[in-house]
Structure formats: structure tokens, C-alpha cells
Amino acid sequence: MAWVYLTIAGLLEIVWAIGLKYTEGFTRLGPTAITVAAMVASVVLLGIALRDLPVGTGYAIWTGIGTIGTAVLGIMLFHEPATALRLASIGLIVAGIVGLKLVS
Asked: Which residues cross the membrane (predicted)?
């Protein structure tokens, strides 16, 4: 169950990271409320997951999911560059997450 909590926490990290863009510096109430709620829920679920997972593994995977999702959505939603080096770097993060999962 810890892996489920960790995965949901990582997905919520993507929500709040992307949400930051839509808050326009925390001046828009709706996006700000969603972003803050996602932040809190993400950290709470991470904390629950870390009851059963090593902290280094859990934190690295949580940030990795957030990083990958935010980078991909940045490309899709905000037309950020999708260079070969950027995509290869995302692939390395995926490989790291898979590696950490396999040894935990």
C-alpha cells in the first residue's frame, strides 16, 4: 500500500507544480486553493508512504514522479522545448525510479 500512497503523492506533486503556473503568483484564488490543497495532500501521503519505505527511496521516487510529470506537462501545456537532451534526461530519471523500485 505504501507504493500506492507514494504514487498518488507524486501525482499530486505534479498537480501543485503545474498549479503554481496558474496561480499567477498566488493572485488567483481558485488555482491557489487547488495548488495548496495538492501540496498538503502530497506531503501527507509521502509521510504515510515513508512509514514503510526507506526515506531515500521514497523521497527520490516522489520527486522523480513530480519532475517527470511536470517536465512532460510543461512540454505539452506550455510549449517548453522537447529537445533530445531534455527527453533523454527525463528517460534517465525514469530509469532511476525503476532502479530504486527494483532494489526496495
From this structure: 33-50, 59-78, 84-103
